[in-house]
Design goal:
single chain; 337 residues; Rossmann fold; Dihydrodipicolinate Reductase, domain 2; 9-stranded mixed β-sheet; 6-stranded parallel β-sheet; globular; binds nicotinamide-adenine-dinucleotide
Length: 337
């Protein structure tokens, strides 16, 4: 399978290496609008026989790729995805799906019209630890409480510094998508507040607190900050789920534990027994390698992968509903399509 990679920035290099390392993929072309950026990245990664340039149309004509990987900034995803789909090529795009819900709808429709797969790489789904936490929840009965805490002091350079709602738009998509994956529920409505503490180095609000009503009566709360130095949580967030038969927590790292109700107990509390799970990484492709494996499997078997654009739209819709709620001060519905 010949790949055309678009975007040679920080994450583009991660993709360049992942595509270059894959036994069944040839990284045939790499383009970036910055002249020489793709060629420089090819040199840095010691890749060979890669067409480089600034124009994806020329690259398509030259190498006739089998699929496109889009690693441009969010506001460029629409342009790249529509061009690839119009050329009859399936697309694996970086998150977030797009920079607005209107653009996202246009891209989903373009995928339908072209009859080509458009999948969004939510790489944090492809992690044996989140899979283990999801599996553990079957022991606590149907959860109706799910919490995620995300506190990281991120001192970025680049497009994030200027973007509005940097935490919600650029990062919370991972956590919101993880909440859908973990619970199997979709968001119905949200109330959210966005804010910037006095010490924040971000131009726009880098903190948010959101309460989602999810399908099946689940309440999902998100507390996030990108301007909290020290005592960082994991990038995967810290999680707690509560069901009728107990509670489960994941520290976002290796601690994945539940307390399962198993006896009447004494005094205030019922008796519980702990249940620890160890993530199983046997034959597991993690992160973007996991996204790539899922995408290639879907192309090969003509099946719908996780994070296909119709499904991923529901995670992006959580982001935009949270932003709208924060702007209006009201609970707002979360779009499903
Ligand atoms: N999944 C993750 O963990 C993760 C981490 C970082 C970034 N990302 C995502 O990856 C994407 C890129 O982020 P980044 O950090 O690499 O950004 P970046 O700014 O470092 O790189 C983006 C590159 O795209 C190029 N570009 C812009 N417009 C283009 C166009 N029309 N055609 C070709 N190239 C174009 C830019 O010149 C730049 O080199 C974003 O969507 C971001 O949200 C995901």
């Amino acid at each position: 399978m010949k790949a055309l990679l678009v975007g040679a920035g920080g994450m583009g290099r991660v993709w360049g290496k992942t595509l270059g390392d894959h036994a069944d993929v040839e990284l045939a072309a790499w383009v970036d609008i910055r002249p020489d950026a793709a060629a420089l990245a090819v040199e840095e990664l010691k890749l060979t026989n890669v067409f480089t340039g600034t124009d994806m149309h020329k690259a398509i004509a030259s190498v006739q790729p089998d699929f496109v990987v889009d690693v441009t900034p969010p506001e460029i995803h629409r342009e790249v995805t529509l061009a690839a789909l119009a050329a009859g090529l399936p697309v694996l795009g970086e998150k977030p799906l797009s920079d607005t819900l209107e653009h996202a709808r246009e891209m989903v429709t373009a995928s339908e019209k072209a009859g080509q797969l458009y999948m969004v790489s939510q790489n944090r789904r492809f992690d044996p630890r989140i899979a283990a936490f999801k599996g553990l929840l079957s022991n606590i009965g149907k959860p109706e409480i799910l919490n995620a805490d995300f506190y990281i002091g991120a001192h970025f350079e680049g497009f994030r510094k200027e973007m509005p709602s940097p935490l919600l738009l650029d990062m919370s998509i991972h956590t919101f998508d993880a909440a859908r994956y973990i619970s199997g529920a979709d968001a119905v409505s949200v109330y959210c507040e966005e804010f910037n503490p006095t010490w924040s180095w971000w131009k726009h609000d880098a903190c948010a607190t959101a309460l989602f009503e999810m399908t099946g009566g689940l309440r999902y709360t998100y507390r996030g900050s990108w301007c909290s130095d020290g005592r960082h949580t994991s990038w995967e967030s810290e999680w707690r789920a509560v069901g009728p038969l107990g509670s489960a927590t994941w520290d976002g790292d290796q601690q994945i534990i539940a307390d399962i109700v198993d006896a009447p107990g004494e005094g205030l509390f019922v008796g519980t027994k702990p249940l620890h799970v160890t993530p199983d990484s046997t034959d597991f492709a993690s992160g973007v390698a996991g996204s790539l494996r899922e995408f290639l499997r879907a192309l090969k078997t003509n099946t719908t992968p996780m994070c296909e654009c119709h499904d991923n739209f529901k995670s992006l819709a959580m982001v935009f509903a949270a932003i709208e709620s924060a702007a209006t001060g009201r609970r707002v519905p979360v779009a499903q399509n």
